[in-house]
Amino acid sequence: MAFVITAPCKDEKAGECVDVCPVDCIEEGKDQFYIDPDICIDCGACEAVCPVDAIYHEDDMLDEDIPYLQKAKEFFER
What we know:
- The chain is an alpha+beta fold.
- The protein has helices spanning 16-20, 45-49, 66-76, and strands at 3-5, 26-28, 33-35, 55-57.
């Protein structure tokens, strides 16, 4: 997985990230958006436009953001 959508997106769902993703790897969940780890090409377009600074490269995530990585994996296992 390249990028992960974290806590600031929860219940926010601004959606600019969806519009700029060149591979349509961002899907809307019940409480936030999620990035599909199998489709993401690690371009960073979503990170640059996020108005709430919720998107991080997985290598730059803080420890408290790790649950959001797991939530994204579980979301796309459906």
